[in-house]
């Protein structure tokens, strides 16, 4: 990639070339004093959206990811960042002519998945591993019966990571299809085993490719100061990528 102070902050994750998809990771900590550079890439609407975030860290991450996305798309299309145009799918998935992409943000880390060469659809998701969630209560809402049974065999120590991995795979699948949470996460069977097992949707085998992303070591093991009295804490991030071929069924 041609050098740019902003895209220099991106880290390309090591995926097999045969996926035909690039996934970039961005960390807030790598964005010191780049606010003007970020703002210069955004549209007027996007700058207004940044101002509406209540949380300054979320605003910075959102702005930086959108600015990097514009830079990456502009490079693929051979245009300027201001000439990049977005449209929205039926359930709000952003798209841009000729390139398939998807983004995700969580805590202080964001991901951009992008495929310019292959006629595929991509979905990407990053999740924090939260130690303060009642995992089984959530699992009852969003997991299949098989997934709940598998989770119930795990120790309290193993549950948070297993659930985060499962949830991240489900969201990546939902986002690749562009359907979002309204589709029903409990219809998608992904499990948490490594490597990812075959996806089933409504009990029927599915052809999507799901990949557990090799996030940077720092993101996988990060320890953040615990908030007192049950506040959320983050010990690690997990991320997933879903790739759909043009022959994949339209579920939306
Ligand atoms: C897509 C969705 C699952 C992402 O939720 P999230 O985990 O909070 O957020 P993430 O950071 O991982 O992803 C957000 C990005 O996903 C993309 N996105 C938005 N809607 C999408 C969709 N339907 N499919 C795929 N990607 C979508 C956007 O690029 C968004 O980032 P942006 O705001 O910078 O443009 C969620 O917003 C959703 O379900 N949206 C669809 C609306 C819907 O069906 N709502 C029903 C709620 S019950």
Which tags fit this structure?
252 residues; Ribosomal Protein L22, Chain A; 2 domains; 3-stranded antiparallel β-sheet; 7 helices; globular; binds coenzyme A
Polypeptide structure, described:
31% of the residues lie in helices and 23% in strands. It is α+β, with helices and mostly antiparallel strands. It folds into two domains: 7-118, 4'-phosphopantetheinyl transferase domain (Ribosomal Protein L22, Chain A), CATH 3.90.470.20; 123-244, Ribosomal Protein L22, Chain A, CATH 3.90.470. The strands form four sheets. Strands 1-2-6-5 form a four-stranded antiparallel β-sheet, with helices on one face. Helix 1 packs across helix 3 (56-77). The longest helix is centred in the N-terminal third of the chain and has 22 residues, at 56-77. The structure holds coenzyme A. The site of coenzyme A (COA) has 19 residues, from helix 3, strand 5, strand 7 and helix 6.
């Amino acid at each position: 990639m041609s050098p740019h102070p902003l895209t220099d902050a991106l880290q390309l994750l090591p995926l097999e070339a045969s996926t035909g998809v690039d996934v970039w990771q961005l960390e807030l900590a790598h964005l010191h004093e780049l606010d003007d550079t970020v703002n210069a890439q955004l549209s007027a609407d996007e700058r207004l959206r940044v101002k509406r975030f209540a949380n300054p860290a979320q605003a910075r991450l959102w702005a930086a990811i959108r600015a990097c996305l514009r830079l990456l798309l502009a490079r693929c299309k051979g245009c300027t960042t201001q000439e990049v145009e977005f449209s929205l799918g039926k359930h709000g998935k952003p798209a841009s002519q000729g390139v398939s992409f998807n983004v995700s943000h969580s805590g202080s880390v964001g991901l951009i998945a992008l495929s310019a060469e292959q006629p595929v659809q991509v979905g990407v998701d990053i999740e924090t591993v939260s130690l303060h969630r009642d995992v089984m209560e959530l699992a009852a809402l969003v997991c299949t019966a098989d997934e709940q049974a598998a989770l119930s065999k795990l120790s309290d120590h193993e549950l948070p990571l297993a659930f985060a991995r499962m949830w991240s795979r489900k969201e990546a699948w939902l986002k690749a299809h562009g359907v979002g949470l309204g589709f029903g996460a409990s219809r998608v069977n992904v499990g948490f085993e490594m490597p990812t097992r075959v996806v089933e949707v409504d009990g029927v085998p599915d052809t999507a490719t799901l990949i557990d992303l090799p996030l940077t070591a720092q993101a996988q093991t990060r320890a953040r100061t615990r908030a007192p009295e049950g506040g959320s804490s983050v010990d690690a991030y997990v991320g997933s990528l879903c790739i759909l071929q043009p022959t994949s069924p339209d579920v939306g």
